[in-house]
Design goal:
With about 425 residues, the chain is α+β, with helices and mostly antiparallel strands. The protein is about 40% helix and about 15% strand. It contains 13 helices and 16 strands. The radius of gyration is 22 Å and the shape is globular.
């Protein structure tokens, strides 16, 4: 039951539905008022209470609640201490919809990168809001409970399922920086290109059951603002204009640093591939770093090129052009152990470096994988920190190639800020 978002509507709906959201926490604590409210209900009260507390936490911040409709039973874990399974979550959502508390939006089945998929989501009805909106103490408790239950670290296995990990000094450091970053950002008001407020709570997601693969910063709402029409450059922080600084061809330079050939690639390695659209070259490089064979890379690239309508070259031709342009990196592309996740791990530690300093100074910071967004007053600091982070994590003293983007006189302006 619920409103199904059709596959044809996914593209149009993604921006509207996902800019400002939170993902349901199964570990959230339950307020007494919610327990008392549901005491006589003939349903699985624990799971209904969990859904309601998540709804109240989202209501307190004006954000949308996302959840999964995966029915597989989840074993008890650090992410799910109550061992709540997906089927019971779906039943609880259906129950709350039946009694008029929520509207359920069901996303279609999708394929591709997990972080890019559209989730099902819930919105409270006027009936629910009329009953709870004036209870500011309850809303505050719900928000605090959500923040307390937030998992700063998510470890996934080879099947992309969340698995437990062993806490140590490394995980304590990760959690401390993420908590301070999230709490610092919470003190500022972020608005998007439409002037709408959005929240930013980050976690780091590691892959293949180890802390050496993946680890990038995810879940924050800013990651859902795609940068078409330079939308991210129109973000405001407490009403102040922002600047976005990003590394140029980061993974190419990182792989080349390891091989000692980074100096050969100039300021823009993508220029080495002539006659092919630059965005296709970037897509191909990213694909080849993250595929384990040439055949897999060609298939994935061709599929994405077909979706974009690019027909000037075949996937095989583009992959061949990349190998030709970067002969030194032949063992990094389409590598059987997947170079991409290890490169992401290194760049995630660069982000950690910057986030640690920015949050310690009490300054807002929005990492977007290989770039960062700050107020324009902090752009000099961001450039310096990103430069230091690159050199520190990679153990090099090379030129760090970066671009700065911001709105000047109403138009986007890009400058080279390599250092």
């Amino acid at each position: 039951m619920g409103i199904t978002v059709t596959a044809e509507g996914v593209t149009q709906s993604k921006q509207a539905y996902s800019v400002n959201n939170r993902t349901m926490s199964l570990n959230i604590s339950i307020a007494d008022r919610v327990k008392n409210k549901t005491r006589s209900w003939k349903t699985n009260k624990l799971v209904v209470n969990v859904v309601m507390m998540n709804m109240l936490a989202c209501l307190s911040k004006g954000v949308r609640l996302h959840y999964t409709r995966d029915k597989n039973t989840r074993a008890k874990s650090m992410y799910n201490t109550r061992a709540i399974n997906g089927y019971d979550v779906i039943k609880a959502v259906d129950y709350l919809q039946d009694i008029g508390y929520l509207i359920n939006h069901i996303a279609p089945r999708q394929y591709g990168i997990q972080e890019d998929k559209m989730s099902s989501w819930i919105e409270p009805t006027p009936f629910f809001m009329s009953e709870f909106m004036t209870d500011t103490e309850l809303l505050m408790k719900a928000n605090n409970a959500f923040n307390a239950a937030w998992m700063p670290i998510i470890m996934r296995n080879e099947k992309k399922e969340p698995v437990d990990y062993r806490a140590d000094e490394n995980t304590f450091s990760i959690e401390a920086v993420l908590t301070r970053l999230n709490e610092t950002n919470e003190k500022f008001v972020f608005t998007d290109h439409q002037g709408l407020e959005f929240q930013n709570w980050y976690c780091r997601i590691f892959n293949n059951s180890n802390f050496l693969e993946g680890g990038r910063f995810y879940k924050a709402s800013v990651l859902n603002i795609r940068n078409k029409a330079d939308e991210r450059l129109h973000i405001k922080i407490d009403g102040e204009a922002v600047v976005e600084v990003d590394y140029t061809a980061l993974h190419i330079f990182m792989a080349a640093e390891k091989l000692g050939c980074a100096h050969e690639y100039g300021d823009d390695p993508y220029k080495r591939v002539q006659g092919i659209d630059r965005q296709i070259v970037k897509l191909a490089v990213n694909t080849m770093f993250n595929c384990t064979s040439r055949a897999q890379a060609v298939k994935s690239l061709q599929s994405n090129m077909n979706k974009s309508g690019y027909k000037a070259h075949s996937g095989s031709e583009v992959v061949t052009a990349i190998f030709t342009a970067f002969p030194q990196l032949k063992d990094e592309f389409c590598y059987k152990q997947c170079s991409g996740l290890r490169l992401q791990n290194q760049d995630s530690w660069m982000t950690h470096y910057v986030a640690n300093v920015m949050s310690t100074l009490g300054k807002p910071f929005l990492p977007v994988h290989d770039s960062g967004i700050v107020r324009q007053q902090d752009e000099g600091l961001l450039i310096e920190l990103m430069c230091d982070a690159y050199k520190s994590v990679l153990g090099v003293d090379s030129i760090v190639h970066m671009k700065r983007n911001k709105i000047v006189d109403g138009k986007p302006k890009e400058d080279d800020v390599s250092c």
